[in-house]
Fold this sequence. Notes:
Blueprint: E1 5-16, E2 19-25, E3 30-35, H1 37-47, H2 57-67, E4 70-81, E5 84-95, E6 98-106, H3 108-118, E7 122-125, H4 126-131, H5 136-146
Parallel strand pairs: 4-7
Antiparallel strand pairs: 1-2, 1-7, 2-3, 4-5, 5-6
Helix pairs in contact: 1-3, 2-3
Amino acid sequence: MKNEVVPVQIRGLLPANSGCAIFVGNEEKVFVIQVEHNLGAVIQMFLRDQPKERPLTHDLMVHVLRGFGITVERVVITELRNSTYFARLILKQDNELGKKIVEIDARPSDCLALAAAHKRPVYVTKDLFEQVEDMTEYLDKLTESSGEAEA
């Protein structure tokens, strides 16, 4: 990617009427990405290293990638268009034939789930980070009052 990026992490999750609000950011700013309720629960499981009775879809992806010697290098949330976030999943395959880096267009929710599963870094493009509304104060209030928003 040619764009400059800013390192971020999942700062909190909060159930919402329409799914789950994922607070993503750093010390400077936090913004919200809305995801489906079930995917929010999956991300929370990966963040907490919770054991699961059976493999979930993202577990399957982790196992398939690992089987082919592919690792998740990083996730980059790239843009916001028509109230929809876009992201890229950067994968690396390193084997006897050499090293290959591949960027895949993916939903930010899936990227965040895989990054949480693999404990890999998450970035946002600098342009997008400057564009999004800062929700730090809102996250701080939620965390203080309920403690539920903590990742």
